[in-house]
Amino acid sequence: MSAGAAVAAPSAWWQEDVNGAGETHCGGSCAQSQLECVRSVMPGTSPDLATIADENAVPWGQIDFWLANKLLDDRPDLFRPDSALGGGRASAPQLLARGVEVDYDLAVEGRPVAAIVRLWPDKAGMASLRCVYLPGEAGIEAHIDELID
User: What is the rounded CA–CA span in Å between residue 140 and residue 20?
Assistant: First the structure.
């Protein structure tokens, strides 16, 4: 972004339910980078943060599988159904002040790709933010933190 350019409020970055699946996609500022983020809420009751972070209480293997499938939809420019996807979790679930986050180091056809999943309790269920990006772009983590707000 050029110096002096107006910065959109994080809420203005979201494009509501662009695919009819009850998800909101990051537009605006994300479109200026290699970042793609999708926010959604899984209806129902959500456990507290400590429970979400507990790998014995939450089926993180299923979340890993869910993420791999969702990335096909989120970044068709990087992921095709026949793509060779490698890699996996780069971290155990990390309990943060406002959610639980897991980082992923992936490779698509040998090209490095990074992703995160952040989960947190919401009044409507368990909220999630999944983001995928090409590693090495400056400021991506700060963008992701702003999108949570």
Answer: 27
